[in-house]
Design goal:
heterodimer, A: alpha+beta, Immunoglobulin-like, 6-stranded mixed beta sheet, 4-stranded antiparallel beta sheet, 6 helices, 14 strands, 27% helix, 42% strand, globular, B: mainly alpha, two-stranded antiparallel sheet, 5 strands
């Protein structure tokens, strides 16, 4: 092999090993980094603005850019039960445990995700709801579940029904060729905690750049007070609730006293 | 008007919850029961998880039975000694019930247990009440006098040892059946989120022969204490009591109970027992339907532990 040939091979290897060539940079910002749950909370929307920064040498991509935004909520372990008829009655018979599954997961893209890159790239970069890692615990071992596993499919379907999982193929809008906007829906039943937001930039089927940001969903005021009291001072909270019940009952008997 | 429930972690319509409290309170006042067996299924129906529903209804039942117990106390229509004896066993039963509740929740079989126990209990008690009250009504129609309590009619329960005299109720009976009844009521109350008044009242009348004049007041004292206690230990162990939900239910409940009590006075005892029996039976059948008919989705998901 000639010296020149070796050099090309080397640089090719370097290109594969190194993170995406930094010709483009992604910059993103959120309309808010804290979603507040107060008594009147009925869901919210967080808007993500992003911009693709291109250095002077790089020419514009012919096919334009593609953006996929993945929002992942706090992780939790979830058991998926399957009911079966036992002695005429439907009972939870089989179950699978999904370890550290996202409690919330939304994928937003500017077009059909399968058109953005080939399946291998999508799988490798975990792009799209269907390609999210959902490790299952089977007999003490933890392994990713197969895509057509019925428990995995049921889990995804139920999470979508609860509006906690979702995929919007038109969730990202390009305002200019380099400036985009994505609206992240936070449903009213969204779990509290830290949310990770992962923004991926694709062009011509390849991942060019990636950036991460975060936000949190927190209870505030009265909601936060009650929730933390219930969790941290359970006994006191119980006593207070019982006392409240007695006061309400006593109050009613005074108000409605007939004699 | 929506309000976010801090523990149930979802917004609910305030007016809907108040109305549910009113409706169940009306029924509870009319029949002299806590109404937990109606409220818990209703809450599950609006989307609140069974665990939060059971834990929160306990305090609602405590509130409505306290306002009831006060008015019975004013009329001296309750037996404190009998209530104390029932309570001792009921508190042990409640503790055992909360422990089972915690265990079942971990095993993922809480929903099934709640559904099956509702079905069995409501089915049996409802059928018994309907049959008994229809007989009584028919007897009254035919002009025959209702069965009177004969002092000589002893059943095996009256042969048990450890006898005790209850002055207000004017009965001399073994404390063993009283303890058993108290334990069972406390246990079921904690597991199923019911005060158990609809079972306790017939049990005290038919098994212990407590006079009808003091039975509802005594049952309300028991319900009050077990449910207040259940609220406290559910809050301490499972952290599932939603105080805001409970407050909304209580407000509706205590108001409804007052109107219910007035309406109830217009009907005879047999008619009330028939209505209640039908009500109890239909709630039981509703659970039977869910258990027997193939669910639209055989899969359910439940988070076991939260981790950041």
């Amino acid at each position: 092999m000639s010296a020149r040939g070796r050099l090309i091979a080397l640089s090719a290897a370097a290109m594969i090993a190194a993170p995406p060539v930094a010709a483009e940079r992604l910059i993103s910002t959120l309309s808010t980094s804290r979603v507040l749950i107060a008594s009147n909370f009925t869901g919210a929307e967080v808007v993500l603005f992003g911009s693709v920064e291109r250095d002077a040498q790089t020419v514009a991509r012919r096919g334009g850019y593609d953006v996929v935004v993945t929002v992942t909520g706090p992780r939790e372990t979830v058991v998926t039960f399957r009911k079966q008829r036992v002695a005429g009655v439907w009972v939870n018979a089989e179950s699978r445990t999904f370890v550290k599954a996202p409690s919330y997961l939304t994928v937003l893209a500017n077009r059909t995700i399968n058109d953005i890159a080939d399946l291998n790239t999508l799988r490798r970069t975990q792009t799209g709801l269907a390609r999210t890692l959902l490790p299952q615990e089977i007999a003490g071992d933890i392994a990713d579940s197969i895509r057509d596993d019925p428990f995995r499919q049921a889990f995804l379907r139920l999470k979508i029904d609860q509006r906690l999982y979702g995929e919007q193929q038109n969730g990202v809008t390009f305002l200019t060729p380099a400036l985009f906007r994505a609206t992240i829906p936070i449903p009213d039943n969204a779990p509290t905690g830290a949310y990770e937001i992962d923004v991926k930039l694709f062009a011509d089927g390849a991942l060019l750049a990636r950036t991460q940001t975060a936000m949190e969903v927190v209870k505030v005021g009265f909601e936060q007070f009650v929730a933390s009291a219930a969790r941290e001072h359970g006994l006191l909270y119980g006593l207070a609730t019982a006392l409240m019940a007695l006061l309400t009952g006593w109050f009613a008997s005074v108000v409605f006293r007939k004699d | 008007m929506q309000i976010y429930l801090p523990i149930a972690e979802l917004p609910v319509n305030v007016l809907l919850i108040l109305f549910m409290g009113l409706a169940v309170g009306f029924i509870s006042g009319m029949f002299g029961i806590g109404g937990g067996f109606l409220m818990t299924p209703l809450l599950i129906f609006v989307g609140i998880t069974p665990a939060v529903a059971v834990a929160s209804v306990a305090s609602h039942v405590a509130a409505s039975s306290f306002s009831g117990a006060i008015s019975y106390w004013r009329r001296r229509a309750l037996d404190p000694a009998l209530a104390m004896m029932l309570l001792v066993a009921a508190l042990i039963g409640t503790t055992a019930g909360v422990m089972l509740f915690t265990l079942l929740r971990r095993l993922g079989q809480l929903d099934l247990t709640i559904a099956v126990s509702y079905l069995l209990l409501l089915g049996i008690v409802g059928t018994m009440m309907v049959v008994e009250s229809v007989r009584a009504i028919l007897r009254a129609r035919q002009g025959r006098p209702s069965e009177i309590r004969r002092p000589g009619s002893h059943i095996w329960i009256h042969g048990l040892p450890l006898k005790m005299r209850f002055k207000v109720s004017k009965i001399y009976v073994s404390v063993i059946p009283i303890w058993v009844i108290g334990f069972v009521i406390g246990f079921l109350g904690a597991v199923m989120g019911i005060g158990g008044g609809f079972m306790l009242v017939p049990a005290l009348i038919y098994l212990i022969r407590v006079p009808t004049g003091v039975v509802i007041g005594t049952s309300m004292v028991l319900t009050l204490v077990t449910m207040a206690y259940a609220t406290i230990i559910h809050a301490a162990t499972n952290h599932l009591v939603d105080a805001l939900l409970a407050l909304l239910l209580m407000i509706g409940g205590v108001i409804g109970a007052q109107f219910g009590a007035r309406t109830g006075q217009r009907f005879s005892g047999e008619q009330l027992r028939l209505f209640l029996g039908i009500l109890v039976l239909s709630v039981g059948l509703r659970f039977a339907y869910d258990l027997v008919v193939q669910p639209t989705d055989v899969y359910t998901i439940r988070a076991t532990e939260e981790s950041q």
